[in-house]
Amino acid sequence: MKQFIKYLFLIIVVAAVSVGTTWFFLQKAGPELVMTKVVNGDTVSAVPVQYQRFASLPRAGETDFTNAAELSVNAVVHVKTTYKSQARSYMSDPFFEFFFGRPGQQQREMPAQQASGSGVIISPDGYIVTNNHVIDKAQQIQVVLNDKREYEATLVGTDPNTDIALLKIEAQDLPVILMGNSDDLRVGEWVLAVGNPFNLTSTVTAGIVSAKARNINILNADMKIESFIQTDAAVNPGNSGGALVNTRGELVGINTAIASQTGSYTGYSFAVPTSIVQKVVSDIKQYGIVQRAILGVQMQEITPELKKEKGLTTLQGAYVARVVDDGAAAKAGVKEGDVITQIDTTPIKTGTDLQEQIGRHRPGDTVTLTILRKGNLLTLTAELTNRQGGTSLLEKQNESAVLGAQFEELNDKLKKSLGIEYGLQVKSLKSGKLKSAGVPQDFIILKANNRVIRSEEDLNEVLENAMSAPERDKVLFLTGCTPQGRVQYYAVDLN
Question: Has 163 been annotated as catalytic?
Answer without folding.
Answer: yes
